[in-house]
């Protein structure tokens, strides 16, 4: 699983919208979507901000065994 896929999965599992993360990064929603879909790179600074918004350490996205529990209470 690529970095952008891990970020997307974790964001969804937390029930956080792309709009919320985009605002935290001072990006448009479409700009953030391009990063989360792998069409644009995610900078180290952006990864730190995304991690902060999601309430996790950035290192979690580099673990070999990456598991996300899906939020099914929507």
Automatic annotation (TrEMBL):
Domain HTH cro/C1-type, first and last residues per copy: 7-61
Annotated Pfam families: HTH_3
Superkingdom, natural source: Bacteria
Coiled coil, from the record: none
Swiss-Prot/TrEMBL keywords: DNA-binding
GO cellular component: cytosol
Keyword check for DNA-binding: yes
Molecular function (Gene Ontology), one example: DNA-binding transcription factor activity
Name of the protein in its database record: HTH cro/C1-type domain-containing protein
